[in-house]
Amino acid sequence: MNLNMTLAGELIAFIVFVMFCMKFVWPPIIGAIEARQKTIADGLAASDRAAKDLELAQEKATAQLKEAKSQAAEILEAAKKRETQIVEEAAAKAQAEKEKILAAGHAEIETERNQAKEELRQQVAVLAVAGAEKILERSIDAAAHSDILDKLVAEL
Amino acid sequence: MSSGAEITSQEYIKHHLTNLSVGEGFMAVHIDTLGWSVFLGLVFIMLFRSVAKNATTGVPGKLQCAVEMIVGFVDDNVKSTFHGHNPVIAPLALTIFVWVFLMNAMDWVPVDLIPTIAQQIAGLFGVAPHDVYIKSVPTTDPNMTFALALGVFALIIYYSIKVKGIGGFIKELTTQPFGHWSLYPINFILEMVTLLARPLSLALRLFGNLYAGELIFLLIATIGLFQLPVHFLWAAFHILIIPLQAFIFMMLTILYLSLAHEDH
């Protein structure tokens, strides 16, 4: 063992190094470490929160999608119903129109037939008068005997 | 072996274990111990200071990562052992750990490398190789280890008195382990032994381990060519010894200061 003034020198060096370390080395490094730890902890917490939010949003989206699907199905159903209704209505309308047109046709035909009948009758009257004139070989006043002729026409 | 066959193994070992010294007796100063320890301390301080100056709270560089790993390791140990609030303990522990580690690490440098370089340089100034002494592992010098231990011891006394008061400190030294007043002197002797054993064991443990390690390196260096594998094995073994001794010194410092803060 050879203790001497080296010890004092080393002691001074030791004290100086420790004080320097205490003032200029330890605080910035440990400060940086702790600040980073805090940043990381905050980041992890934020990511946790974000994951939870995402889960919630996904749940919400799923629910909304389901609702939208059911709504779409409802709308489709209603549209189909309406479609058949329209088709039925149109068919009914067409049927009615057809019947109306048919009826009108029939009526027209009837009127024309009556008209033709009337004309034929008149002509028959004229022919009959002419025939009678010829048969009697004398002039018969058509006006004087029109009541008889009319009776004849009505009998035809 | 540095200078051939004209010196014996004994002389060789003795030469390597002698400090480069200035002055006589108690006033002597070991230039090599002081120089290497201050150099290594400056390496520690400047490296860590450069990181501290550029410390970013964002993404750290690789050097900052390495330094933060050491700082974090020391901080964890301090926090797990010392439960008060004291801004001195953690930087003290860091300084002790890194400084002692670097000084111990000089043990890995081949035993003849630094003395041979020193002899070559001294030879340029006309100094005979035999007169050049360099002991490059500062912790193999009891002056170094006792300086560290006394620094810690001073802090133990300072904090004991600061936390407990002089009365409390004296009370702690006298009233336990035996509670009766007539046994107080015996208590005092026992407690003084405990108190004084702390710096003594701190200093001697570090010195003993490193001195013995260095001595074995020197013995291995005397056995000729066969030294190479043996030297390698012993150096590999020191991968365990060197950080372990630095760690033990740091942990015991924290523990002793934590005990000094405890008020019974």
From TrEMBL, chain A:
Predominant subcellular localization, coarse grouping: membrane
Note the coiled coil stretches, chain numbering. 51-126
Q: Where in the cell is it found?
A: Cell membrane; Endomembrane system
Q: How does it sit in the membrane?
A: Single-pass membrane protein
Q: Which Gene3D superfamilies match?
A: 6.10.250.1580
* InterPro entries to which the protein is assigned, alphabetical: ATP_synth_B-like_membr_sf, ATP_synth_b/b'su_bac/chlpt, ATP_synth_F0_bsu_bac, ATP_synthase_B_chain
Q: Which domain of life is it from?
A: Bacteria
Q: Cross-referenced SUPFAM superfamilies, in alphabetical order?
A: F1F0 ATP synthase subunit B, membrane domain (SSF81573)
Query: Can you name a GO cellular component term?
Result: proton-transporting ATP synthase complex
Q: What sections of the protein cross the membrane?
A: 6-26
- Which family, according to UniProt? Belongs to the ATPase B chain family.
The name of this protein is: ATP synthase subunit b
This protein's species is Colwellia chukchiensis
TrEMBL record, chain B:
What does the UniProt keyword field contain?
ATP synthesis, Cell membrane, CF(0), Hydrogen ion transport, Ion transport, Membrane, Transmembrane, Transmembrane helix, Transport
Q: Which residues form a coiled coil?
A: none
State the compartments where it is located: Cell membrane; Membrane
Sorted alphabetically, the Gene Ontology cellular component annotations on this record are: plasma membrane; proton-transporting ATP synthase complex
User: Which top-rank group of organisms is this from?
Assistant: Bacteria
Enumerate the PROSITE patterns for this protein: ATPASE_A
Molecular function via GO: proton-transporting ATP synthase activity, rotational mechanism
User: Do you know which InterPro entries this protein is assigned to?
Assistant: ATP_syn_F0_a_bact/chloroplast, ATP_synth_F0_asu, ATP_synth_F0_asu_AS, F0_ATP_A_sf
TM stretches of this protein:
27-48, 88-106, 144-161, 206-226, 232-259
Q: How does the record say this protein sits in the membrane? A: Multi-pass membrane protein
Which Pfam families does this entry report, sorted A to Z?
A: ATP-synt_A
**Gene Ontology biological process terms from the UniProt entry:** proton motive force-driven plasma membrane ATP synthesis
Which interval of the chain is the signal sequence?
A: none
Describe the task this protein carries out.
Key component of the proton channel; it plays a direct role in the translocation of protons across the membrane.
Family from the record: Belongs to the ATPase A chain family.
Listed name of the protein: ATP synthase subunit a
Species of provenance? Colwellia chukchiensis
Q: Which gene encodes it?
A: atpB
